[in-house]
Amino acid sequence: MEKVHEKPLSLYNGSLSVFRLGDLAVKITKVKKGSLNNDNLSPPTSLLVVSPIIPGTYPVLLFFHGFVLKPIWYKSLLQHISSHGYIVVAPQVLIFIIPTSPQNPTYSFSHFGYLFRRLQSLTNEYFAFGLQFSSLVSQSEEVKKAAKVTEWLSKALESVLPEKVQPDLLQLAVSGHSRGGKIAFALALGYGIKFQALLGIDPVAGFSPSNRSAPKILKYIPRIFDQTVPVAVIGAGLSNQSANCIFPPFAPNGVNHSEFFNESKPPCCYFLAKNYGHTDMLDDRIAAIASWISKSGKGPKDLMRKAVGGIVVAFLEAKLGEKVDNLNAIVQEPSLAPIILDPVISVK
Questions:
Q1: Distance between CA atoms of 219 and 267, rounded to whole angstroms?
Q2: What value, to the nearest 5°, has the Cα angle with vertex 334 and ends 309 and 82?
Q3: Whole-angstrom Cα distance, residue 337 to residue 304?
Q4: How far apart are CA 256 and CA 4, in angstroms?
Q5: Which residues of 311-326 are buried (b: 16+ CB within 10 A; e: fewer)?
Q6: How far apart are CA 126 and CA 183, in angstroms?
Q7: What is the pLDDT of residue 131?
């Protein structure tokens, strides 16, 4: 178990508590596929579970990571959310295929060169041969795996939580970043699972409108999504821009956050982190590495994590707990956030 603490860097002293770490200490648990004694209870894939350690019953948030990323690289963001009273379950839905070094699988500044070469090679292949790559790693299969993880929650989530901590699966929300954001939308739209809230964090649906990955959920018709839950979309203002002349944008126009929001039925909210990039909500070291290939904002990344975490918490409070004050405050006065949110749109 570990207690989460604010960093002294860029300490946010605003009036909204959702943008600060919550009062609850949290525990991070890694659950490997097949690690539980009973095979019937083992998860369909490896999981990262972030939970309060104080006894009680808490809502559950499913969180799906972005392309070639790992759940642990969102550690600070997920701790922020969990510290406000949520159990966060982050599955590894895509096999991780980029080691930071052959000897050491953990990230390290000493292996930037190696990682950059691997990222450059993979990204060139990914964008140049998108259709062929998608046939090898089908996102439809990822969505099916995500559905199996959702089924697993009722079977065995409680068994991996701290003592006397229980999940409230009647208060279940789903979210994701980048490619994982699309997984969250696909899961909410096509599997009949009763989620209470849906959040996309800079979601991406493919390489371009003409080259979208399956399942092709974007239809380019306003408010076409047949979702039955409230939606929040958080976009990154720089994500449709290239970091350099080598790498294309990671969230191109026509398949990014704007289109996901345009196709969502009310009630839905939209928040654009104007001066930040697609991977700026990751932990500092990974965000620094990613900035070599993905356009990044110049501001402190901890402020981006506070903003994203605070919006997620405020939205969950409003839609799961009917505590609307913080969400309404952000919508009515976006300057309360630690970063520039422009525009902020709420459609009821």
A1: 19
A2: 15
A3: 10
A4: 32
A5: bbbbbbbbbbeeeeeb
A6: 18
A7: 35
Nearest to 140 by CA among 63, 46, 213: 213
> How many whole angstroms separate alpha carbon 200 and alpha carbon 176?
5
Fill in the amino acid letter for 32: K
**Inter-helix orientation angle 179-190/139-156, to 10°:** 70
pLDDT score for 294: 95
Q: Is pLDDT above 60 for 10? A: no
| φ/ψ (deg, to 5) at 317 | -55, -45
Query: Which of 222, 171, 179, 220 is closest to 203 using CA atoms?
Result: 179
What global pTM score does this model have? 0.87
Residues with a known catalytic role: 178, 202, 278
Query: 319 and 284 in contact (C-beta within 8 Å)?
Result: no
Contact 93, 182 (CB under 8 A): no
* Torsion sign across C-alpha atoms 107, 110, 111, 117: positive
In which order are the strands placed within the sheet that holds 341-347?
A: 26-31, 47-52, 87-91, 56-64, 165-177, 197-201, 231-236, 268-273, 341-347
Phi-psi region of 215 (alpha: psi -120 to 50; beta: other; left: phi over 0): beta
Please provide the DSSP assignment of 210-271 as one string: TEEPSS----SSTT-----S-EEEEEETTTTSBSSSSS--SS-TTSSHHHHHHHPPSSEEEE
Q: What is the mean pLDDT of the chain?
A: 86
Cβ proximity of 58 and 166 under 8 Å: yes
Other beta carbons less than 10 A from residue 138's beta carbon: 13
pLDDT digits (tens, 9 = 90+) for 303-334: 999 999 999 999 999 999 989 999 999 999 99
Contact 96, 70 (CB under 8 A): yes
